[in-house]
TrEMBL record:
This is Glucokinase. Keywords: Carbohydrate metabolism, Kinase, Transferase, Xylose metabolism. The keyword ATP-binding does not apply. InterPro entries: ATPase_NBD (IPR043129), ROK (IPR000600), WH-like_DNA-bd_sf (IPR036388), WH_DNA-bd_sf (IPR036390). GO terms for biological process: D-xylose metabolic process. Belongs to the ROK (NagC/XylR) family. PANTHER family: BIFUNCTIONAL UDP-N-ACETYLGLUCOSAMINE 2-EPIMERASE_N-ACETYLMANNOSAMINE KINASE, ROK (REPRESSOR, ORF, KINASE) FAMILY. It comes from Gracilibacillus orientalis. Transcriptional repressor of xylose-utilizing enzymes. The lineage of its organism: Bacteria, Bacillati, Bacillota, Bacilli, Bacillales. One of its GO terms (molecular function) is kinase activity.
Length: 378
């Protein structure tokens, strides 16, 4: 019984802390009294939470507000202090590693892109070098988030299949955590890119969003009620394996590690099979080159089928298309939106990603911040 009451007390304390911090974040300045009134909490509860936030430097006092109508004492005003803490985001790709460091609202204090490596000691050295080059006080660094191109269990930290890095059943989080004093979090790279776009890009804080990454391969991420949707084995969003009716009796057999049928048709690798790069194909399409027009029209058709079916299933507010290929898709996006609107009565705005190759690293640090806040560690 005692354990239950302690547990309930901790839960209530966590909720109150989150409510107070979110309320301070949502406004330029606010007093303790206003917070208590807005959240219907006691002044004692608010004061206790605020004192903790002040001690953690997450909140700062910034002078006095106006006096009360009765001419009483002017209230001390509070505001969020995003620059008090720094997080590291690392997007570990098959060809490049992107490292960024941001404050709590995503303002960058450091950014670097280097050649990829799958050697942990070298990755740790790159992160250590980034900390040195940034000249950030190490005491300010509160977390590291890393995006991995493969099947990843963010709960255990195990990457159980990342072909681009030749990692199989490796506890990546543990390997990184042993090297640094702050918490380390890992996730799939497409999930991270989705979080990045939601936080600072085209997602624009949308709580219900479907993200499609079209690069060498194709993947997707689902955000519902502001949270990533993982699936039973953390394999949700593998849209590269989507099929059409004619594929059922084609004799095709899917195997782990190989491109799915949709991926073969619509990824950057699939487009390159026509001896064009994706960028060249879209340029030739704009110039009405007959072969390019046929290829891109087929690409559009395949993509629209997946988008329409995903909208019908998920009802997202937005569909964001990212990845390297998306950077050449500006001229075809209106046509894609038109076809989607024609084929489903469920409305969803389709946009291109805006963070380019930075999305994964930005999302990785955002994921780390989310986990800290969720676990009352921020």
């Amino acid at each position: 019984m005692e354990n239950n009451s302690v547990s309930k007390f901790d839960v209530i304390k966590k909720i109150n802390r989150s409510l107070v911090l979110d309320r301070i974040k949502s406004t330029e300045m606010i007093s303790r009294t206003e917070i208590a009134k807005d959240l219907k909490l006691s002044k004692a509860t608010v004061s206790a939470v605020v004192e903790e936030l002040l001690a953690r430097q997450l909140v700062e006092e910034v002078g006095k507000g106006e006096s009360t109508q009765r001419g009483g004492k002017r209230r001390s005003m509070l505001r969020f202090n995003p620059k008090s803490k720094i997080g590291i985001g690392v997007d570990i790709g098959g060809t490049k590693i992107q490292i960024i460091m941001t404050d709590l609202i995503g303002d960058q204090v450091y950014e670097k892109r280097v050649e990829a490596t799958n050697n942990f000691e070298e990755i740790i050295e790159l992160i250590e070098l980034a900390i040195i080059e940034s000249k950030v006080d190490r005491e300010q660094i509160i977390a590291l988030g890393a995006g991995i191109p493969g099947f990843t269990n963010p709960e255990t930290g195990i990457v159980f299949d990342a072909p681009a890095l030749q990692w199989n059943d490796i506890n990546v989080r543990e390997s990184l955590q042993n090297a640094f004093p702050f918490p380390v979090f890992i996730n799939n790279d497409v999930n991270c890119a989705a979080l990045g776009e939601r936080w600072l890009g085209s997602g624009d804080k949308s709580d219900d969003m479907f993200f499609i990454a079209i690069g060498t391969g194709i993947g997707s991420a689902i955000i519902s009620n502001g949270k990533l949707v993982y699936g039973t084995d953390y394999k949700s969003g593998e849209i590269g394996y989507q099929i059409s009716k004619k594929d059922i009796r084609s004799g095709y057999k899917s195997k782990p590690g190989m491109f799915g049928l949709f991926e073969q048709k619509a990824s950057g690798e699939g487009l390159r099979s026509a001896n064009y790069t994706a960028k060249e194909l879209f340029r030739e399409y704009e110039n009405q080159h007959s072969q390019a027009v046929e290829i891109i029209n087929n690409f559009i058709d395949e993509l629209v089928v997946v988008i329409v079916n995903s909208i019908n299933l998920l009802n997202p507010e937005k569909v964001i298309i990212g990845g390297g290929v998306s950077e050449s898709m500006g001229t075809v996006l209106p046509h894609i939106q038109s076809l989607v609107n024609q084929l489903t009565p469920i409305k969803s705005k389709i946009e291109l990603a805006s963070l380019s190759s930075m999305a994964g690293a930005i999302g990785a640090v955002n994921y780390a911040y989310q986990e800290l806040e969720e676990n009352n560690l921020l």
